[in-house]
């Protein structure tokens, strides 16, 4: 027994290594290209690294200056507010509610209509974001289809891209992202036993009441998961806004990712841009932790 | 006897069920109408791209082409505008998707099969990273790439793209792999197969629909990704279609909208086809819905 022990230990640890080996390629990639940049951003955010000028030749530690600069800057505060508006309008209200409505309606609709509408909604989701950006630029622009329609019915021009660009990009994002919520809710609703809803109907509960007191509580976890995922996705939308408005006119649709891009790459302030990235990462990490708590029991 | 007994009951029930039937039919009609209305809102913006692509003098608004022609397609179908960016995109996204697929299959195997100490922390970290905004990582990644001389290299872009696909890829793959019973591998193990052989010859053939789902979704995600190649690649001859379509638009003072629409369609076509393939063969995106329902 005492002789066999070390040998068993050795073979056991060899087996443990052999079993962990397939994890190596993925772990290596994740460490170098995901963990690496995150760690670098924690350091870089406290330096004055720049693509040109003094910060390029001699970057050094400047403490919390980048963060002071950010929180003192009205452009930064503007971008945070716009990010919140964009996320609230397009994800939490738009995609979430339209997706839920579609999933609910589809259960009651006929098969042909269901397939057709599903294809349209998913079609908008599959299309690359730059193309989606052009489509909405063309639809909402000054000479776009919507204005042509408004003109023809005598409503006059509504230059949404100029007057309310953040609303315009939110509408485009609802169009593009609703399919995801619809799919998540359809999957969740397909597992709700019909008998429970029918029992409530027999008891005389109205449609809205049944939805609120029976159906929604049953898909509660899917609602949380969906809200979390679409919030995170919307937080980092870049291409759609960049193609539609480039953050403009002025800074009226410059969300945090666009402000970060401008500071880091157009103005070459990598250190400052990294500090902004860190702010975004922290916000994302907080949402991610909540998401983790929701799913934790399943692992 | 039985028929005479039941007759009064059916006679009384018939009108009631008929009105209920009529009501539910009316209800269904209303539901269908609302659905179609929402569907129309989703499809109308697409009309511009479809109509402008065959309209030689297309503007920004939807207009019926007077003389539909394929001139716009002919104009953009050349090496510089279409073929090279599409080839670049295929090369970048194809290699990155293969890399993601291989690395996540390998990683999913021990996570699905063995109950080790690192399993739970690893999975939690993976799940946590699926939530991190990749957009935010682009600035530090650029900083890192400058340090190690990877800016404007295909290999660097492929490696980073592959990494962005990994967290979700591993997570999906592990869930699909959990669906293959372990008992099947035990037979292979008794025959002396190593665990990687068991994975290759027993597990993977049984979960190919899962593999296809992960592969196609990874590729679609990368094909549409604009920000990563936009930041990491500089030379015009390396840019994939997602970025070149953007420069195509901003290069010209006078935008040829018809050509832009035609090029948009060409660029979007591969992912639309892949998606159709996916939903045909594998029962639709509900496979994905099942994986994220929580």
TrEMBL record, chain A:
Q: Which Gene3D superfamilies match?
A: MetI-like (1.10.3720.10)
Alphabetized PROSITE patterns for the sequence: ABC_TM1 (PS50928)
* GO BP, sorted A to Z: transmembrane transport
Q: Which InterPro entries match?
A: MetI-like (IPR000515), MetI-like_sf (IPR035906)
Question: Chief localization class?
Answer: membrane
Q: Which residues cross the membrane?
A: 21-43, 80-105, 117-139, 159-175, 227-245, 265-292
- Has the keyword Transmembrane helix been applied to this entry? yes
Task: Report the residue ranges that make up the ABC transmembrane type-1 domain in this protein.
Answer: 76-291
Q: How does it sit in the membrane?
A: Multi-pass membrane protein
| One Pfam family of this chain | BPD_transp_1
* Entry's localization field: Cell membrane
* Keywords, alphabetical: Cell membrane, Membrane, Sugar transport, Transmembrane, Transmembrane helix, Transport
Family per record: Belongs to the binding-protein-dependent transport system permease family.
Name of this chain's protein: Multiple sugar transport system permease protein
The species this protein belongs to is Motilibacter peucedani
From TrEMBL, chain B:
The answer to whether UniProt assigns keyword Membrane to this entry is: yes
* InterPro entries, per database record: BP-dep_ABC_trans_perm, MetI-like, MetI-like_sf
Region annotation Disordered: residue ranges? 1-20
Q: Which GO terms describe its cellular component?
A: plasma membrane
Transmembrane ranges?
29-51, 89-109, 121-143, 155-173, 210-235, 255-278
Q: How does it sit in the membrane?
A: Multi-pass membrane protein
Q: Where would I find the ABC transmembrane type-1 domain in this sequence? A: 86-278
Cited Pfam families: BPD_transp_1 (PF00528)
* Cellular localisation: Cell membrane
Signal sequence extent: none
GO process terms (BP)? transmembrane transport
Q: Which UniProt keywords apply?
A: Cell membrane, Membrane, Sugar transport, Transmembrane, Transmembrane helix, Transport
The UniProt entry, under PROSITE patterns, shows:
ABC_TM1 (PS50928)
What's the family? Belongs to the binding-protein-dependent transport system permease family.
Q: What is this protein called?
A: Multiple sugar transport system permease protein
């Amino acid at each position: 027994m005492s002789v066999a022990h070390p040998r068993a230990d050795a073979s056991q640890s060899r087996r443990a290594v052999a079993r962990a080996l397939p994890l190596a390629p993925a772990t290596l990639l994740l460490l170098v290209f995901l963990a690496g940049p995150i760690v670098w951003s924690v350091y870089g955010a406290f330096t004055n690294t720049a693509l040109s000028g003094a910060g390029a030749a001699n970057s050094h530690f400047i403490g919390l200056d980048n963060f002071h600069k950010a929180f003192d800057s009205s452009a930064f505060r503007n971008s945070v507010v716009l990010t919140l508006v964009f996320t609230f309008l397009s994800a939490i209200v738009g995609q979430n509610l339209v997706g839920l409505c579609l999933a609910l309606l589809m259960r009651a609709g006929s098969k042909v209509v269901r397939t057709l509408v599903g294809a349209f909604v998913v079609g908008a989701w599959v299309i690359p974001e730059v193309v989606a950006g052009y489509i909405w630029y063309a639809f909402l622009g000054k000479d776009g289809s919507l204005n042509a329609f408004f003109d023809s019915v005598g409503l006059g021009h509504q230059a949404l891209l100029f007057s309310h660009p953040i609303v315009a990009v939110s509408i485009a994002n609802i169009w593009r992202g609703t399919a995801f919520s619809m799919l998540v809710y359809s999957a969740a609703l397909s597992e709700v036993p019909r008998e429970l809803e029918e029992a409530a109907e027999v008891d005389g509960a109205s449609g809205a009441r049944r939805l609120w007191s029976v159906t929604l509580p049953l898909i509660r976890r899917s609602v949380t998961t969906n809200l979390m995922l679409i919030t995170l996705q919307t937080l980092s939308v870049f291409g759609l806004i960049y193609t539609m408005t480039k953050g403009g006119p002025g800074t009226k649709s410059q969300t945090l990712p666009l402000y970060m891009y401008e500071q880091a790459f157009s103005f070459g302030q990598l250190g400052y841009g990294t500090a902004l990235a860190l702010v975004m990462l922290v916000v994302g990490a907080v949402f991610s932790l909540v998401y983790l708590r929701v799913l934790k029991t399943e692992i | 006897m039985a028929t005479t007994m039941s007759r009064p009951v059916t006679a009384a029930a018939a009108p009631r069920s008929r009105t209920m039937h009529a009501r539910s039919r009316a209800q269904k009609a209303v539901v269908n109408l609302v659905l179609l209305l929402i569907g129309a809102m989703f499809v109308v913006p697409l009309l511009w791209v479809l109509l402008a692509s065959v309209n030689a003098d297309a503007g920004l608004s939807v207009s019926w082409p007077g003389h539909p022609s394929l001139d716009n397609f002919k104009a953009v179908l050349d090496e510089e505008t279409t073929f090279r960016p599409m080839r670049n995109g295929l090369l970048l996204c194809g290699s990155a998707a293969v890399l993601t697929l291989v690395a996540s299959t390998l990683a999913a195997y021990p996570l699905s099969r063995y109950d080790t100490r690192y399993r739970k922390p690893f999975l939690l970290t993976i799940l946590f990273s699926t939530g991190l905004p990749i957009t935010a990582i682009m600035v530090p990644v650029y900083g890192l790439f400058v340090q190690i001389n990877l800016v404007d290299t295909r290999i660097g872009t492929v490696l980073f793209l592959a990494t962005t696909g990994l967290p979700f890829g591993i997570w999906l793959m592990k869930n699909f792999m959990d669906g293959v019973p372990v008992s099947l591998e035990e037979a292979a193990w008794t025959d002396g197969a190593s665990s990687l052989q068991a994975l290759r010859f027993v597990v993977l053939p049984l979960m190919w629909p899962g593999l296809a789902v992960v592969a196609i979704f990874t590729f679609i995600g990368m094909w549409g990704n604009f920000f990563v190649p936009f930041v990491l690649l500089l030379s015009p001859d390396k840019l994939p279609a997602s970025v070149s379509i953007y420069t195509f638009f901003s290069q010209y003072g006078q935008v040829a909208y018809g050509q832009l629409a035609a090029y948009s369609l060409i660029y979007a076509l591969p992912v639309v086809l892949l998606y159709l393939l996916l939903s045909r063969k594998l029962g639709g995106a509900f496979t994905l819905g099942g994986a994220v329902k929580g």
